[in-house]
Write a structure and sequence with these properties.
With 341 residues, this protein is α/β, with parallel strands linked by helices. Among the domains are: 43 residues; 138 residues, Response regulator (Rossmann fold). The protein has eleven helices and 14 strands. The strands form four sheets. Strands 4-3-5-6-7-13 form a six-stranded parallel β-sheet, with helices on both faces. The protein has a four-stranded parallel β-sheet with strand order 9-8-10-11, sandwiched between helices. InterPro entries: HTH_LacI, LacI/GalR-like_sensor, Lambda_DNA-bd_dom_sf, Peripla_BP_I.
Length: 341
Amino acid sequence: MDSIDADGPRRVTAAEVAALAGVSVGTVSKALSGRGAVRHDTRSRILDAAAELGYRAPHAEPIRTGYGSTGALGVIIEDHFGRLTVPVLQGAIEVLDELDLALLLVDGRGDAIREQHFADALVRRAVDGILVVGAGVYPREPIRGDLPLPVVYALSASTREGDQSVTTDDASGARIAARHLVATGRRRLTFISGPQRDAASMVRLASTRAVLAEHGLDLVHDPLFGHWTEAWGRQAALQLLHSNVEFDAVVCGSDQIARGVLEALRENDVAVPSRVAVTGFDNWDVMVEASRPPLTTVDMSLTDVGRLAARTLVRAVAGDRTPGIQLVDCQLVPRESTAVG
């Protein structure tokens, strides 16, 4: 916080922020203005230092873009190492770069207090709007509602009515996977996913069952819920094999689970796809390309989510604001795990 002396509050200097963050004054200037290339971890450290000291930067000359007062936008992410976060962020950056808009990126780490701290810091930096990028497809609590600028949520939709959110259409993804399996002649489907409490698990299950009902079918085994891991995929597949239920397809809630399922089937001499077809969800290249056989999966169109969220924020800054959740369609990526013939 600003210190107090006989002459009133003493303004914290950029040099003090630089000293606390362990960087140069020039790097502080670039990080807080958004007008220079600064590494993400360095920028986060500088913002932390600025907020801790209560630094108030002098207002820079506005960047004239026609969208807002400064032409700088803030982005709060939940997890900068997140497998889902990165492609969303890439899409958003593409749009902002095309529009020559400056970007201030901070890592909220999924902590509400830290997010609010950074939101307040971004307001003090005079950004025109804030994009909040979630780490998964689930509803999230919003940042405090009295921020004096537009806020758009990407991937993790805000639970507050009246907010603007953009996320992937999980239901459409699950439907296209189930329809693909039925179209390739599969009639005895099973379902394995992550925790039952996760919205993604329940949405994908409901959509799978809805498609089966259209064809007079249902799952031949109770859905299995566990963890979003390969280990759980192997364990669940073994449960199916030991249940003596005949099945010809496994719908998996994630690529990690699907890879575990494939391993268990292979180890038990169950041929894929001739005897059992397997689908995943995510199109995570590390998983699908290393799977044996390569995995048919659902691409969540995460880069498109980032692009649409960025455009939505730019429009909101310009005064064109429509509350609600915008959904981006998923796409099926067929590979050998469901091939016919």
